[in-house]
Specification:
Blueprint (H helix, E strand, L loop, with lengths): L5 H38 L19 E7 L5 H12 L4 E7 L6 H5 L13 H9 L6 E4 L2 H4 L8 H14 L3 E6 L7 H16 L3 E5 L2 H20 L2 H4 L2 E4 L26 E8 L6 H17 L3 H4 L2 E8 L13 E5 L3 H10 L2 E2 L20 H9 L3 E3 L1 H6 L8 E3 L6 H7 L5 H40 L4 H14 L8 H9 L1
Parallel strand pairs: 1-2, 1-3, 3-4, 4-5, 5-6, 7-8, 7-10, 8-9, 11-12
Helix pairs in contact: 4-6, 10-15, 12-13, 13-16
Length: about 500
Amino acid sequence: MAKPSSSDSFTTSFIRHHINTNIRLIIITTALLLILLNLLTFRHQIPLPSGILHWTDANRPVIQIALINAHHANDEVNTALYDAFSHSIRVQITRYQQGAAYGMDDIVAQLPHPPKTKWLPMSEFSKLVSEGTAPDIVVSTTCANDYSTEASNSASALMADYEVLLRQHNTHLICVMHQSNHFIDGWGFELKTVFKPWILQERLDVVTLSPHVEEYFVGKVWPMFWEEEMGSLKQAGLRMRGFVPVFPVVANPKESGRKEELEGGRKRLRFAIQGSFDHGRDFESIFTRFVDVKNDWFGLGKGEDAEQIELNIIGSGTRPEVPEDIAHQIFFHENLDYTQYYNLLSEMDGLLPAFAMENWAGNDYYSNIASSSISASVIAGVPLVADFKLLKAYSYLRLSIVWYRDDEEHEIDAAFRMLEAGAERRRAMKDAVAKRRAVILQQNYANVEEWARQAYEKAQARVGVPVELMEELIEVKEVHKFNPFPTRPISRLLEGRI
């Protein structure tokens, strides 16, 4: 048998070397992946002291939630949050408020899980706290108003209640932010005083009602007004949440005293503007353009079509002046109760935002405040007339559920254009909004369940922690301007102290 040549030996050695090298690489890579997986798993574990119940334990107590609306405003947001939390079998909700405006109780009674008891006055919340009992979670639905003495007469009492909850109980606070400008200057100083210790103990979540409000707060308000004192959001430990304030409504469109049809059996095309008559809506621009487009249509021999447009203005305040040429096509609906309101809104073919470029106190609906018109359209199943700017600000909407207009096109032009869409297309658009609402509701239900779970587990991790230790944590975070325990600071402290 022939002896292998030196070249064959070299080839064999070369192959063996590379096989061994590849095997080593595979082993090392696998080991690193296992280590990384273990680290990631550990990062998301919440180490709890032995004997503390976990969220999945069947025998753990039902979470007690207090839903607070001390300012008596934003009933729709209050109702949406109640609906979302009520879908969890692990919670019990008690509502505290000054009263339900415009018959909202009738709407709440029709929700899938209506409350077993009526709302309680705010004095009962103070009584509860003073008697030494407290909810696991407080959801403040008009947060900035509830804790600013400039906005609410009950703010001082609530601040005292919160001081007790902070120092003597283990309550987690969820603050609903309607407009981020409230957290600057005047009101902001009071709010910072109230919320700073809650933030530093990681017992506060801030919920915004639209993505653009959160972006404004994170990108402008916090860096300008809070960051120097408390560090970045992550360093401070403040958790931002998002929530779309919608809920299911059983609407019953009915006759509203106006003719459903014009002469010849032609159907009216109904649009609405919802909101205050006094601010936030650019009625002058809407009416002026309405007259101009109507005259253009008459000039083109389409005057009868132009008469089909009907504009319903729903709200309260001082009625804006209406040009005589279109007065018979404009209908005002004032101080409706919520049942009437949603019934009427559900009849509409479209909703015009009609936003003024800037409303009161320098706020606008595209940057720092969430408009109720947007969520109202989803609740009632009515497509908005929307441009790219609005879709970007309220990104929970979809292009498929709005009457889209170009940036240069006026809302009234888009409304007139809908005359050509046909009844079948208009029905399909409303169905699309209803389907999108169903998706949003399921997302809401899943999200608040997660909020409650995380708040509960954090609260359980704090059980037995002395007040002095919590204050020590605050001092460390204030001095170093960073979170010394980045994964779960309270739990890390517990590992070494309990």
